[in-house]
Amino acid sequence: MTTLAGAAVSMPHARDRREVDAQIGMIIFLASWGMVFLTLFFALAVLRLQSDTWPPLGSRPLPQTIAAVNTGILLVSSLLLHRGVRAVAEGRPQALRVPLGATMLLGAAFLALQIETWLDLWSSGMRMQQGTYESLFYALTAFHGLHVGAGLGVLLWIVPVAGRSATGPTAMRDRIRVRSSAMFWHFVDLAWIATFLAVYVI
């Protein structure tokens, strides 16, 4: 009897421990990618400090309006996904369907606008081989774009969760998958905000 009671008490702790371990692992993973972004931001800062004018003379003007719209798109997508994650945590995985679908549509819209930006700048004569400024712009935005694409793949991975039961055998694993995927997407959002500020605003 005592053994059964002890097992009943320990099971929630075991579940919580696995979720915490997964969260810590994702934080470490995201921190490693964050260092790559920081390296690119550092290179951009050094270039700016060495330049007499900013942007450098002869540089093409960047489309700030589209970049601002893209910032709003990712912010809304993160807010929607947060609602879905909270629903899963509350035992309502079916409520993930709409926020997740909307988040993926917004992510796709972000990528479409970003591709349009690259094509417009490229056709206007802004090429990577022109200089360090142009190279860093394409490197930063393309590196982030790859993360958005990866993020959409990660979100696609958790689509089946919205059709499963909150008390099924995979419930705990589903919560971990959803939370980890959301953390990755929020990281993509924060990375873009930093990119937007560093490239388009400051």
How would you describe this structure in keywords?
202 residues; Four Helix Bundle (Hemerythrin (Met), subunit A); 0% strand; disordered N terminus
Q: Would you mind describing this structure in some detail?
A:
The structure is a single chain. With 202 residues, the chain is mostly helical. It has one domain (2-201): Four Helix Bundle (Hemerythrin (Met), subunit A). Helices cover 79% and strands 0% of the residues. It is built from 5 helices and no strands. It has helices at 2-50, 64-89, 97-123, 132-157, 171-201.
Set out the fold topology.
Blueprint: H1 2-50, H2 64-89, H3 97-123, H4 132-157, H5 171-201
Helix pairs in contact: 1-4, 1-5, 2-3, 2-5, 3-4, 4-5
Short structural summary:
The chain is mainly alpha-helical.
Provide the low-confidence segments as ranges.
1-14
Rg calculated over all Cα atoms? 21 Å
Domain count: 1
Q: Secondary-structure element sequence?
A: HHHHH
**Overall mean pLDDT:** 90
CATH superfamily: Cytochrome c oxidase, subunit III, four-helix bundle
Number of helices: 5
> What is the CATH architecture assignment?
Up-down Bundle
Task: Enter the CATH topology name.
Answer: Four Helix Bundle (Hemerythrin (Met), subunit A)
Could you tell me the number of beta strands? Answer: 0
Helix content: over 70%
